[in-house]
Write a structure and sequence with these properties.
The chain has about 190 residues and is of the alpha/beta class. It is built from 6 helices and 6 strands; from the N terminus they run E-E-H-H-E-H-H-E-H-E-H-E. It has a 6-stranded mixed sheet, sandwiched between helices. The relative contact order is 0.24.
């Protein structure tokens, strides 16, 4: 199932939490967090996460990050300079984005997972929200996609992936997708596994 993907495992910030107590069995990964953004590229992390969840009998948490109400600070400032209705319009737009994200995650869970998979819509900056949700949910593995690049560009991970690796404190499995960066290929259609 991993044939279409290149896998990188980053074991940064590990503690001795994987050392079982004497005489006590432990599961290496009991909860796997999978950040998604609605693109086929991000969805390429689902198959490896599902396989790991099956093998380790892990639960899965799908998360999508929206800008959230923090974006309303700018609208509040704009309103004070005469752009009336900015806050209400932005609040309605954010509510709509959260509804779309929730429906998308439910569709992904239906198409690729099990009813036991959890879905979470987080608010804020992508990397910070992913790190926060990993801590809140007790995730002990993050499985996420990063841009498929070659040559000099490959020396650098996507900024979100790099920030997550630096701050999450649990292993991160990066899936290098073979999905094109073509915007026409970048949709929330979840008809087939990416």
């Amino acid at each position: 199932p991993f044939a279409a993907h290149s896998i990188t495992i980053v074991l940064a910030g590990l503690s001795n939490r994987f050392d079982p107590e004497p005489g006590k069995a432990t599961t290496m990964f009991s909860k796997i967090l999978v950040p998604l953004d609605g693109t086929k590229e991000a969805e390429s992390a689902i198959a490896p996460a599902a396989e790991l969840a099956r093998r380790f009998e892990s639960s899965v948490v799908l998360v999508e990050v929206t800008p959230g109400y923090g974006a309303m600070v700018g609208a509040t400032a704009a309103e004070s300079f005469g752009a009336s209705g900015s806050v209400n319009a932005l609040a309605e737009a954010e509510i709509a984005k959260e509804a779309v994200a929730s429906a998308y995650l439910d569709l992904v869970r239906t198409n690729y997972g099990t009813p036991l998979w959890q879905t979470v819509v987080a608010e804020g900056g992508s990397a910070d929200a992913i790190v926060q949700k990993a801590a809140e949910t007790g995730a002990d593995l993050v499985v996420m996609a990063t841009h498929a690049r070659s040559g000099f560009k490959r020396l650098f991970l996507g900024s979100v992936a790099e920030d997550v690796i630096r701050h999450v404190g649990v292993p991160v499995l990066l899936v290098h997708s073979n999905v094109s960066d073509d915007p026409d290929n970048d949709s929330k259609d979840t008809g087939e596994a990416g």
